[in-house]
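Quick one, tokens below. Sequence please?
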């Protein structure tokens, strides 16, 4: 297996059974055996199975959470889905099917699902919107007319689109709507969820290489700021549990002890929001103990590049996502030392030959270097899941001609004007900064003991099996690092730890989104759609405060959008919007967003449910559930799997597939979706056929193949791309085929040239740490009144963000929002288990139920996010009473991407009593005084049981 090879480098389940499966918080830990349980992973030779009694077994992919690539079998009897179970061919989910997947049966047949287009007849903000049923023709005609009127009268940037989390079959709202409306203003959950990690890695290494190949089962498994054993966007649930159990060492970095974390070998229990300091502490230990990969630092980072403070920043023009941008850097270039020099040749000092040499970012090669033949071997992952291909690992290439780039110290150089300048290397500059983050200093900042931090860093960075030629595995760094106004810098720190320890695009390492036939966002952008005008990105909402929004070219800032809706503090107002599964509660301040939506002239909402957001819509359009649609799919993370959603049951009422909704909206607005002049508005079937065209198949042909053979291993299907590691060596890391990474310098940038360009004061050039702005350290006086640090966003076994609160199985198990509090703190506050408590800041207060938990550190509480109450009839659906997102400081955001300050700020906590509660009731009540559902025996849950009749 380890022989060296050569390759040329390339220029039906009852409710009781359900409760046994999902009722305990640590359900995932019950699934730690080496092989999938027989009940969830039976052996089957064929796909869709029909029988004489009208029973079919259909292979598809689940969408019970944001992951959307867990393979499942759906049993359909007489046209009704009756059972969901794991698909044994789905290696990226280990044949598992979690509680949210099971509850999808109730979601699909829920009596409150939207079944028909609806139109508002009462004023926005009324408890009763006055919905009336209208036809699709009426709905689309009115929506098209209203949107065109706003665009023609006020310009495209006077409108915005909204998109929620990873419902791949509605992602047109994320990009396509920008062209349809001609606006750069998009309110995307992506800004606070994955997006900060993706734009960070996109600027300094390779976009979305925050994804980790957990399916490769790393030797050291690091979970940082999340609990993917419950749910996640990439590898999660059973896959995570198996990776942790099989790993030689398991490390968690989290303020609270997570479900799987109690089994970990090492725990770094940091103060919320101080992830960057912990990461810099790890780097301090790694660098001090020479545990970094020196060849990587010299050859694949810009660590050897020279910082010249005596020159004006200069560079070249390139195309960013939001239009042309002029890269300007103080890194020393050939054009700085000779008149006819190239601005893309970066100077380094060669210690071996004692002279300046260069790396040419125009070609991807060092001075005198030529393309070469790569050698390598099969990966050697000893715990790899059965049936998963190992993949091929190229050997690291050295320097040819031989040089030795200097990484420490400084060099005196002569500039082209004849003056001399002393230039320090980037690595030395960063080393000087990191030197301050000793384990003892980091303990003062984060409360992680110096010994625990040192042990974690050394364990992670010391190869368990040096013979493999690569590191122990990547870091599964997750959402928590994105929510304390330091998200991009935190991501850069994690990315750098991964890179310098030999875990970038290696087995079990961080290697980005799976390369496959299918695009990650199916039908996100029609071939005939115009792109939003480039100049619109100069005026995208929020760009004055967050200049990099233009470079990212993905979203507008959420707070700036709500400011514009409210016409307060924005450069121009917003008048209309289109929402697809978006959520007013997910970022910025939910109450401010709610007030903004009320002021819009027109809002079109496409969803499955009546939600707090849809309560303010003018027209509602019903979308289909995942059991009702066909859609191609690949792993959005590094799972390495390719498959499909396959329609299992007929859709509810007049609900439509999101793709057809958007295409027909284009038609109503007179905008071609397709570039085909003979068919400018194709149906979704033609879009599905187009997605399969690179395989030489129609959608139906691919669907039948998938039913028979199951999920495809992309390492096996695409051996030169996903099946090969270290793709920066082969040219597959970049779209232009050059060796290197996706940065302006083609290196992992410790010193970011893009950030330097947009923030020329230099404060963010390096990956640095900043204190959360409302922490007890940043605002000690405020902490006197608000003494408890609040964190939030944890994963819940039966919910995903704002989803599933109306599903009886889920709500029975988890009927109320919980706030975890240490028993010591609870005793001091006179709070007992199950008490309703107030959580308050100067921006408002909400109530949640006290859950006494020793796994949360004293002085810290953990609240649940995005709660709302589908059982309520009031306009807000109760989110204003219980959602912690109502307390967010809207004006405090990450300066490099705008992600909201969702956690790691201080609050006060006290017991809710009849005297201090509306209606004299500590339990949150609807506008008429009716209590919310608080127990599994509430009769209102029965009203939500599946309705199998009248689906036409």
């Amino acid at each position: 297996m380890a022989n060296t090879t050569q390759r040329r480098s390339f220029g039906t389940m009852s409710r009781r059974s359900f409760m046994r499966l999902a009722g305990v918080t640590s359900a995932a830990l019950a699934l730690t055996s080496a092989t999938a349980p027989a009940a969830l992973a039976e052996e089957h030779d064929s796909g869709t199975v029909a029988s004489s009694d009208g029973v079919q077994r259909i292979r598809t992919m689940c969408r019970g959470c944001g992951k959307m690539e867990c393979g499942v079998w759906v049993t359909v009897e007489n046209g009704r889905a009756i059972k969901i179970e794991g698909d044994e061919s789905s290696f990226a989910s280990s044949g598992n099917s979690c509680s949210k997947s099971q509850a999808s049966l109730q979601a699909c047949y829920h009596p409150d699902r939207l079944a028909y287009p609806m139109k508002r007849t009462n004023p926005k903000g009324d408890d009763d919107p006055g919905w009336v049923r209208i036809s699709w023709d009426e709905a689309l005609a009115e929506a098209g007319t209203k949107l065109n009127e706003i665009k023609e009268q006020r310009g495209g940037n006077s409108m915005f689109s909204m998109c929620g989390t990873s419902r791949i079959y509605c992602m047109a709202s994320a990009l396509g709507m920008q062209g349809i409306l001609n606006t750069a203003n998009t309110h995307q959950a992506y800004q606070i969820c994955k997006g900060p990690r993706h734009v960070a890695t996109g600027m300094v290494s390779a976009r979305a290489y925050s994804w980790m190949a957990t399916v490769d089962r790393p030797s050291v498994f690091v979970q940082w700021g999340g609990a993917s054993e419950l749910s996640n966007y990439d590898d999660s649930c059973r896959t995570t549990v198996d990776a942790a159990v099989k790993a030689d060492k398991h490390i968690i970095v989290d303020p609270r002890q997570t479900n799987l974390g109690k089994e970990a070998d090492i725990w770094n229990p940091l103060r919320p929001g101080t992830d960057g300091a912990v990461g810099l502490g790890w780097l301090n230990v790694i660098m001090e103990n020479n545990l970094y990969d020196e060849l990587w630092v010299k050859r694949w980072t810009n660590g050897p590049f020279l910082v010249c403070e005596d020159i004006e920043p200069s560079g070249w023009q390139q195309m960013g996502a939001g239009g042309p941008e002029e890269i300007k850097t103080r890194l020393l270039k050939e054009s700085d030392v000779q008149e006819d020099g190239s601005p893309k040749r970066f100077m380094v000092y060669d210690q071996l030959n004692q002279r300046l040499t260069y790396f040419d970012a125009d070609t991807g090669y060092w001075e005198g270097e030529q393309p070469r033949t790569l050698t390598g071997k099969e990966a050697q992952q000893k715990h790899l899941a059965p049936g998963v291909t190992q993949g091929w690992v190229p050997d690291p290439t050295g320097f040819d001609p031989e040089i030795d780039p200097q990484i420490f110290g400084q060099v005196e150089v002569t500039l082209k004007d004849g003056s001399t300048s002393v230039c320090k290397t980037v690595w030395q500059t960063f080393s000087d900064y990191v030197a301050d983050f000793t384990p003892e200093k980091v303990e003062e900042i984060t409360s992680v003991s110096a010994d625990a931090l040192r042990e974690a860093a050394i364990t992670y960075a010391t190869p368990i099996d040096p013979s493999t030629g690569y590191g122990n595995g990547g870091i599964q760094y997750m959402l928590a690092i994105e929510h304390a106004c330091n998200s991009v810098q935190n991501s850069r720190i994690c990315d750098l730890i991964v890179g310098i320890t030999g875990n970038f695009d290696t087995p079990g390492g961080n290697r980005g989104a799976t390369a496959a036939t299918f695009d990650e966002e199916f039908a996100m952008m029609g071939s005939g759609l115009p792109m939003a005008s480039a100049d619109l990105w100069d005026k995208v909402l929020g760009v004055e405060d967050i200049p990099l929004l233009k470079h990212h070219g993905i979203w507008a800032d959420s707070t700036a959008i709500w400011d514009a809706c409210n016409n307060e503090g924005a450069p121009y107002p917003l008048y209309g919007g289109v929402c697809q599964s978006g959520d007013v509660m997910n970022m910025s301040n939910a109450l401010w967003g709610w007030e903004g939506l009320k002021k819009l002239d027109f809002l079109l909402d496409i969803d499955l449910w009546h939600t707090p957001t849809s309560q303010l819509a003018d027209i509602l359009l019903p979308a289909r559930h995942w059991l009702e649609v066909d859609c191609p799919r690949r792993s959005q993370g590094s799972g390495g799997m390719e498959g499909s959603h396959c329609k299992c049951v007929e859709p509810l009422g007049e609900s439509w597939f999101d793709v057809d909704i958007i295409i027909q909206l284009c038609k109503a607005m007179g905008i071609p979706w397709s570039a085909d002049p003979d068919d400018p508005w194709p149906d979704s079937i033609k879009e599905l056929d187009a997605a399969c065209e690179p395989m030489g198949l129609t959608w139906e042909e691919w669907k039948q193949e998938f039913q028979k053979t199951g999920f495809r291993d992309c390492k096996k299907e695409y051996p030169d791309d996903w099946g090969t590691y270290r793709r920066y060596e082969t040219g597959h890391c970049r779209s232009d085929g050059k060796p290197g990474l996706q940065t302006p310098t083609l290196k992992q940038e410790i010193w970011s040239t893009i950030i330097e360009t947009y923030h020329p004061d230099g404060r963010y050039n390096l990956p640095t740490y900043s204190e959360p702005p409302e922490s007890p350290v940043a605002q000690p006086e405020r902490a006197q009144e608000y003494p408890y640090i609040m964190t939030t966003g944890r994963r819940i076994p039966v919910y995903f963000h704002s989803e599933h609160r109306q599903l009886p199985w889920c709500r029975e198990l988890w009927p109320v929002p919980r706030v975890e509090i240490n028993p010591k703190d609870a005793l001091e506050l006179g709070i007992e288990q199950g008490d309703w408590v107030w959580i308050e800041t100067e921006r408002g207060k909400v109530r949640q139920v006290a859950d006494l938990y020793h796994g949360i550190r004293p002085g810290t509480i953990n609240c649940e996010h995005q709660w709302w109450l589908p059982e309520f009839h009031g306009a807000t659906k109760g989110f204003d009473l219980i959602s912690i997102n109502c307390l967010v400081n809207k004006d405090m955001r990450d300066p490099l991407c705008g992600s909201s300050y969702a956690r790691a700020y201080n609050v006060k906590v006290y017991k809710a009593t009849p005297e201090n509660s509306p209606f004299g009731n500590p339990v949150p009540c609807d506008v008429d005084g009716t209590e919310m559902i608080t127990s599994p025996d509430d009769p209102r849950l029965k009203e939500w049981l599946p309705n199998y009749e009248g689906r036409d």
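The radius of gyration is 27 Å. Confidence is low (pLDDT under 50) at residues 1-49.
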